[in-house]
Design a protein that fits this description.
Rossmann fold, 13 strands, 2 domains, alpha/beta, elongated, about 45% helix
Length: about 400
């Protein structure tokens, strides 16, 4: 095969799975990355993006359920089912559960090669134009939420396309406060084991701002954060990518399953830090944890916030040498305008369109969506922010 395929085997009986391994090892261009016997371990690998094709032994009691769950939570990963049962009705049942191809056991090498060749086009879907951008602060007060909210605003303006903004800081998130909005529903209302998530449910939970941004807020009660499940968050983010050109995720600091779900499939992860040793130290730890989650290092970028060269002991060059890459963005310290925007629940550009901080965030947005950089109405004109300010005046 011309392209390397990463396979995993799922079998409730590991001994049975290992008996099938030699057949796959004889096929060029195929690597079996692991053997799983529980859905939890398989799901973790799918979330990290380590699997191209899942091979499932259909003779297990829970196997068809696993096939259905793969389709629900990782629909870009096709399933090859293997079974000794060749009854036509059983094969139809397997296909309806989500199997893209079927092979009889004991497996035949030529049959496997044919099935894999036919299954390859399934995973080469048309590229989706949506981008998921995760933003995480290196420390409390680093300004990650301010960057997230204003970046969403600038991307919506730059591309003239809808942008989703998700507050994944489930306990202490401030995204809704930054826009002075009180959504009727939160992420906890739709991302739990009791709710059947579909587009209508998601749409009802999104708070539509009159500036091409839809907000999904954190729960009002801290204890409700415990209701949110990784599987439902993964499904929710995929649905948002079908609806929005950009999905901005304001992430909490910490190594968690929820963070893994959001970050592992992001096109870009921005670590927001300040030029202070404790902040850079924490940024380094976050950088390393993201890599452990399965995030490609090339997708991780550093944004320096509240830059004030006259007071800092370390330089931008020091940071670039430390992370062995250019800093992605530098937002200057513009305390007067930024703090006023936070207090009023406005984006920075609503009250201070010429703010240096706002201009720096615009530059970050242009880097994230370079194909959309074009001549637009002058920044801060009523065509961009008038609607937002109009909402405030009512």
């Amino acid at each position: 095969m011309s392209q390397e395929l990463r396979l995993c085997l799922f079998d409730e009986d590991r001994a049975s799975a290992e008996s099938v391994l030699p057949a796959f090892e004889q096929i060029d261009g195929v690597t079996v990355v692991d053997v799983f016997s529980t859905w939890e371990t398989l799901h973790a690998a799918l979330v990290r993006g380590q699997i191209d094709i899942a091979v499932v032994n259909l003779d297990g009691a829970a196997s068809l359920g696993v096939v259905e769950r793969i389709g629900k939570h990782s629909d870009e990963v096709p399933v090859l089912g293997i079974s000794r049962n060749t009854d036509a009705n059983f094969i139809i049942q397997a296909m309806r559960a989500g199997c893209a191809q079927f092979a009889c056991a004991p497996v035949d090498i030529d049959d496997l090669k044919t099935a894999l060749q036919r299954i390859k086009p399934v995973r080469h879907r048309a590229a989706h134009t949506s981008r998921r951008i995760c933003v995480v602060g290196s420390s409390g007060g680093a300004g990650a939420t301010t960057i997230s909210c204003n970046l969403a605003m600038e991307l919506a303006h730059l591309t003239s396309r809808r942008t989703a903004l998700v507050d994944m800081n489930l306990e202490f998130g401030d995204v809704c406060c930054a826009f002075d909005c009180v959504p009727k529903y939160s992420i906890a209302d739709i991302c739990n084991d009791q709710t059947e998530l579909d587009e209508d449910t998601l749409a009802a939970a999104l708070y539509e701002l009159p500036c091409n941004i839809a907000v999904l807020g954190r729960p009002e009660q801290i204890e409700d954060a415990r209701q949110v499940t990784p599987e439902s968050v993964e499904q929710m983010l995929k649905m948002l990518s079908d609806l929005f050109a950009h999905v901005i995720v304001d992430m909490p600091r910490g190594y968690s399953f929820l963070a893994t779900v959001a970050g592992s499939r992001a096109e870009t992860v921005l670590i927001v830090s300040q030029l202070a040793v404790p902040c850079i130290r924490n940024a380094t730890r976050i950088y390393e944890s993201l890599v452990q989650m399965g995030v490609d290092e090339e997708k991780i970028q550093i944004v320096l916030n509240r830059h004030a060269a006259d007071f800092e002991r370390i330089t931008i060059k020091d940071v670039e040498e430390h992370f062995r890459r250019p800093v992605f963005g530098v937002v200057p310290n513009d305390y007067q305008f930024v703090s006023a925007a936070l207090d009023l629940g406005h984006p920075i550009g609503a009250d201070a369109p010429a703010s240096r901080a706002r201009s720096a965030i615009q530059e970050v947005a242009q880097k994230l969506a370079p194909e959309s950089v074009k001549e637009t109405t002058k920044s801060g004109s009523p065509s961009f922010l008038g609607k937002f300010l109009g909402r405030k005046s009512r």
